[in-house]
Fold this sequence. Notes:
By secondary structure, this protein is of the alpha/beta class. The chain has 9 helices and 20 strands.
Amino acid sequence: MNYQDYRTLTLNGQRLKEHELLAYCFDSSEEYMHDIGSFLKEWLDDKTTLTIKTSGSTGEAKQISVEKNQMLGSAALTAAYFKFEKGQTALLALPISYIAGKMMVVRALYSGLNLLCQKPNTNPVSLLSNVAVIDFAPFTPMQMYKVKDTKNIRKILLGGAPLTQEAEEKMQVLKAGIFLGYGMTETLSHVALRRINGENRSEVYRVLEGISIRTDDRDCLIVKAPFLPKPVFTNDVVEIKSKRTFVWKGRTDYVVNSGGIKLFPEEIEKKVASFIFDRFFFAGLPDEKLGQKLCLFIERETYSDSEKADLIKKIAQVVEVYEKPREIYTVSEFKTTSSGKIRRDESIKNISTEL
């Protein structure tokens, strides 16, 4: 597989090659098309590698160099799983600055897809025609938040952020087949998928063909892919069910050890997301007796004692006894990464140093 063999792409119904592709993108009045053009310019040059920015899933955010042929290898596995056919239409409504957007372009190059390009926004489905058939569309969970009708989209791939239980339940009535991907920049997008609606709905991720998995002594997932030069050691705690399946528990960075019981904040957050309307997260703070105590942090200026008491009652109805927060703290504004993810440690730094 050689990236130099993939230099032709159908954009918005127009089959274009090399300089035609670049002219089409850079002649557009839309800034997002210029961004796509910049990526294609890199793809078409003589360098065998690209520099890609990570989101910090396996450590500090950084820039890494990846082989273009490795990206094609990832695209090939996705194409096989979703059974892409030449001429099918895929939607690109993601920023090209991150791996998900870049990989959608590479998938279209590899599979001969017609790539329908749309300016990234919070509700891309609302801008689609009811007539046009979209065979495949990758979105973030936020882009699906207000969607009540998937129109003529056949398959949707979600990724980039955790999916709440409430959001997952809302998607049960949507007609499109919806899949949640597990992956990161270091694995060149998803390496495992789970169906979140329909008859084949599951809590278990299944790895793509050729991917192998194991865990380290922290119970964190290690991924080996045929298109990667070495295994990727993640910070994701999982429960391996078989050679090809696993259940995601949460980030090891966030695990709270309270009195010898391991608590996974992301799992608890899914349970309570339906009735906490401000941004929030659970985390551990030092405790003399327990080692760590589970606390709830809410992005809000104030929270009265009565409001906190009412919230604790609601939480107690949907979580296990030991998953109930010992304290609720308000934070006026969470610290975030450049991609909008909450930086938990930084957000509670002042609180933890005051205790």
